[in-house]
Structure formats: C-alpha cells, structure tokens
Amino acid sequence: MSMWYDRMGHCVINEEMLRKAVEEQGPQGRAGRIAKEGGIQYDEVIQLRLEYKKILQIDHLWEFTSLTKLQLNNNSIEKIQGLEKLTNLLWLDLSFNKIKMIEGLEALVKLQTLSLSNNQIPAIEKMDTLEHLEILSLGENVISQIDNVIYLRRFKNLRSLNLARNPICQETNYKIFVVAYLPDLVYLDFRLVDEQTRERALTEINVMTDNELKEKRAMEAQKITEQELQLHKDAFVEYLNGPQLFDSMFADDAEESRLASLPGVPKLLETYPSLCMQIFETGLIQHAERKNEGDSFFTCCREAVSDNQQRAAQIVTDFEESRRQVGFACSLCVTIEFERNISDMVGAFIENVQGIYPLTHYHEKLQEIALATLEKMARNELEEDMPEDMHLLLVDKDTVVKAVSASHDTHQLKIDNREDELMTRINSWMSAMMKSVRHDEEVTRNRKRISEIRNYLEYVRNQLDEIILPEQQ
Predict the structure, then answer these.
(1) In terms of domains, do 185 and 242 share one?
(2) Are residues 410 and 349 part of one domain?
(3) CATH number of domain containing 146
(4) Alpha-carbon dihedral of residues 173, 176, 181, 185, nearest 10 degrees?
(5) How confident is the model at residue 1 (pLDDT cuts 50, 70, 90)?
(6) With a threshold of 0.85, does the pTM exceed it?
C-alpha cells in the first residue's frame, strides 16, 4: 500500500508509513534483521515517532495497544481522533499542529505528559479522565479566559504547566492567579515557582475564597428572599407585610401633607399599617389551609388512582374467570365536597380581607377631627399653632369637607385596586384548580384507560385469529 497525498502535499497515516517508521525506530543491525524476518508486531511497539510528515488526520493506530509514547508533533493535524485503543499511553505530543479543540482523549486514562502547544486551542476542556496528568503544555494557543485555569484544579498530580504566549498571560497577576488555584505546581511556563510567589498566591486564594463564600451566602440569601416572595404571591398578599400599601396611598395623595397636620391624625395613622400585617398573616394562614386541603385531596386521588390501576390490571388478568367492576379514582361526591371546601375557604378569605380594610372608619374619624379643629379655630380655642397652609384649608366647612373627601377618594382608589387584584387572582386560581380536578386529570386518565382497553381487545383478536384461521384452513 502506498501513501496518498492531497493537493497540498498532506497525507494520512497508512500501513506503509507505520511500517517504515517502526523499522527505522526499531532495533538496528542483526537484531533489526531478525525482527524484520519474524514480522513486525504492532501490538508490541512501545514508542512511535511520526513527526514532520505533513499528517492531516490521525488514523490506523488501533493495533498499537502497548504504545506508551507517541509523537505526532510538527504536522497538519486539525482534530484529535483515532486514539481510543491507545489506553497504555503515558506521553503524547501533538504540538505544532492546527488543532482547534481539545477532544478525543477520554480513553487515555494513564496519560502523564501531554503537549498541545503551538496550536489554535481557545479553551482548556474535555480532559476529565486524565487523572494521572503531571505535565501539560498549552503554550502559544489562543486561550483568553483566565478563569479557564480553574478547570485544571481537578488534576491533583499536575506539577508542570506551560501557558506561555497565550492571551491570558497579559492578565494582571496572571502568575499569582494560576499558582493560587494550582498550589501544587512546581513549574509554570518552564520556570520554577518561587516561595515569594507561593506566599502571594496563598494570600490571594484566601481573599478569593472569602469572596466566593460571601457570594455564595449572598446567593443563598437571595434565594431565600425569592422563595419567601413566591410564598407571599401564592397567598396573594405580597408586599402587605409592612406599610407599603398605606405608603403608596399617601404618596399619591395631594391633600395628605396638610391633613396629616391635624391634631390626632398622626396617632390615628400609626394604628393602620399594622392592619396590613393582619391581612398578610391571615392570607398566609388561609394559604396554608388551602394548600393542606389541596394536598390531602390530590394524595387521596393518587392513592385511589393507584388502587384502581392495580384492580383493573387484576381484572384483566382474571378476565376469563370473572368480571369485576372498576371504580373511578375519585367519585363525584368527593370532587363536589372538595370544590365546596375550596370555595368556602376562598370566600372566607375574601370576606375577611374586606372586613379588615378600615377606610370608612378612617374617613369618618378624619372628617370629625377636621371639623372639630375648624370649630375650635373659629372660637380661638386652639392650644397649638397651626401651619400657614392649614389656615388656608380651615377656611370654612365646605373647604374642609372637600379636602377630606379628596383624600378619601385617593385612598379608596388604592384600596379598591388592591382588593380587586386580590379577588381576581384568587378566583382565577380557584377556577384553574376546579378545571384541573373536573376535566384535565380525569380526561387524561380516561384516555389512558381507553387506550389500554383497545390494546387488550387487539391482543384478544390476534389470539382468536391465531386459533380460528388454522382450523378453517
């Protein structure tokens, strides 16, 4: 077999190339002649050099199962492949090629030395199985992400690393970063790692560890916050565990700044934010009760469905001997009772929320205070000075009533909008729940049972055909 070449003079590994290389690199003189006469056994070859041969593709190496050292440097190889059978390989040199990705090394579990320098590799990856790797050369590639070095922490035996003349070498504190994450390195870029560098790296890794710990704690805190917010949303009471609702009401109230100066109003306002918390706590309690009711119902349904499936399977098995009735997983009365319980819970929650909002009482109290202050002002009985804008407000009864009414309308709009949102969402949730119970799950279960019946009927027909047709013939 002769070597074949492409238009650019490149070639692939073939029988002639391998035979010639083994003969040239094997024993010489009389020992070489004896070996040649006895036939070349590729599975006994320990080392093989295929350098400077313009090889484009790795191939035909599967017989070299005892190979421990393979040199394929200074060729035109574009992809790492064809090495699956070389499981005893300890040394592999693929430097000075055109490789664009680290791959195809999974089977080389004994590999200790790997050279991939002077290629076009952008990332350090896909070497997870190389647990015994001690020396790695990746110099003069296009590795640009300094964090990619962290991937090498998995190689506990790595003592020598070459990353020279990669873009990452331009990073500030490149050497410190690498030694910090790979503290067992002895040589970096062909230079001994000195103690001063190790000490600086140790300090750096401690700082990075602290930062990672802080970041992890922040992420955990963020996750807890998001979980709590999701719970509040599921209970339809998000952002009601504080004064947010009342704050938003007063923020859009043009008259609030003046009305809040009335005697007794500040104290009155202090009593109301806690009512939002009352709604919030009630919502969580009601949500827990609804969830427990739903969990109990669906657990019961699953148990009933499972029991029903077992009974149905037994019925099919004993079909020739007896007929038994298959019950539904969830009877109609249980479904109706569940719907009634959920509906009552939702209604009670809405009624409870509507009863807690104290807007009318607040409006009446505010108007009473304002009118009383107006009368005291008219009789010059006020014990404290009033702001100038308050004097403009307390001109007459109509002006006071209009200001209080305007404030009331602003508050009423906020309350109505939040109440409508709460009722709309909880009613939508209830409707979706009922639809799932009444239709979705039951239809799916029904279709599965029909499919099982059809399959069984088809099976019985086939059995009957096998019995009847031979008799007719």
Answers:
(1) no
(2) yes
(3) 3.80.10.10
(4) 140
(5) very low
(6) no
